From TrEMBL:
CDD domains: RPI_A. It catalyses: aldehydo-D-ribose 5-phosphate = D-ribulose 5-phosphate. Pathway: Carbohydrate degradation; pentose phosphate pathway; D-ribose 5-phosphate from D-ribulose 5-phosphate (non-oxidative stage): step 1/1. This is ribose-5-phosphate isomerase. It is an enzyme of class 5 (isomerase). One of its GO terms (biological process) is pentose-phosphate shunt, non-oxidative branch. Belongs to the ribose 5-phosphate isomerase family. Its EC number is 5.3.1.6. GO terms for molecular function: ribose-5-phosphate isomerase activity. The keyword Transferase does not apply. Keywords: Isomerase.
């Protein structure tokens, strides 16, 4: 997706530091509009979030194509000596590998049960800053790490904004144990029968092989035709099913959401 970017955002520091735009100049109104892709917008949101990082922080490192930009940026700032004494807590094996390759010192929740800040992407953000996460498959570790943070900054491009969770028509992931997964998937589907729920096992690479999470579990993706109603009620109902490990609704967890869009950056605080 390529988006013609309005000119005034060229004064945005995060976009300039991401190497995507040049700073505004008196003659800039004569320049042609810059074309930014969706990935550029993700990068701008990520760079903006990293402005909140301070030396000495214990940081939750998110997973996914947006969070990857934030982790890269933290690695760059450490290398340049602009950040010091950072401890990262990765939310997936993939982010762990990325952070190791960038030389970011890592730890875990056992050693650092309270984090200063986490930065991560999301699949959906509703007007109350509730989220759907886990289309990348890392929802359990993300929920553990991000639930242990004093501040949780979510970074998205504007395509992730929805009127209600499930409203994108895309997957709402639920991590389940592999044992009798069809039984658990059927129970999940029945739970949301009135919302026109379709529960599908996530498979790997378009084949029949189940996708396996970092925790050795499966993921069932729920697709809804209608709203699921009260989110807390839905959350409790899912978690009560034996066989369910965790779901991808992150309710009341984000403290800040940074949205990069066609009109620039919007920051929403809880
Ligand atoms: O929850 C996640 C992974 O489990 C991701 O944060 C979410 O899927 C968004 O990913 P992306 O930034 O690639 O759009």
């Amino acid at each position: 997706m390529a988006i013609p970017y309005p000119h005034f955002i060229s004064s945005e520091k995060a976009a300039v530091e991401a190497g995507l735009l040049v700073p505004s100049s008196p003659s800039s109104s004569l320049s042609p509009p810059v074309i930014l892709t969706q990935d550029d917008l993700k990068k701008i949101a990520a760079y903006k979030a990293v402005e909140y990082v301070e030396s000495g922080m214990v940081l939750g490192l998110g997973t996914g194509s947006t969070a990857k930009h934030a982790v890269d940026r933290i690695g760059d700032l450490l290398r340049q000596g602009k950040l010091k004494n950072i401890v990262g807590i990765p939310t997936s094996k993939k982010t762990h590998e990325q952070a190791v390759s960038l030389g970011i010192p890592l730890s875990d929740l056992d050693s650092h049960p309270t984090l200063d800040l986490a930065i991560d992407g999301a699949d959906e953000v509703d007007p109350f800053l509730n989220l759907v996460k886990g289309r990348g498959g890392s929802l359990l570790r993300e929920k553990m790490v991000e639930g242990a943070c004093k501040k949780f900054i979510v970074i998205v491009d504007e395509s992730k904004l929805v009127n209600y969770l499930g409203g994108s028509g895309l997957a709402m992931p639920v991590e389940i144990i592999p044992f009798c997964w069809k039984f658990t998937a059927a129970r999940l589907q029945n739970l949301f029968e009135e919302s026109g729920c379709d529960a599908r096992l996530r498979t790997f690479g378009g084949k029949d092989e189940p996708f396996v999470t970092d925790n050795g579990n499966y993921i069932v993706d729920l697709y809804f035709k209608k709203s699921i109603g009260d989110l807390k009620v839905a959350s409790d109902a899912i978690l009560q099913l034996a066989g369910v490990v965790e779901h991808g609704m992150f309710l009341d967890m984000a403290t800040t959401v940074i949205i990069a869009g066609e009109l620039g950056i919007t920051i929403k605080n809880k």
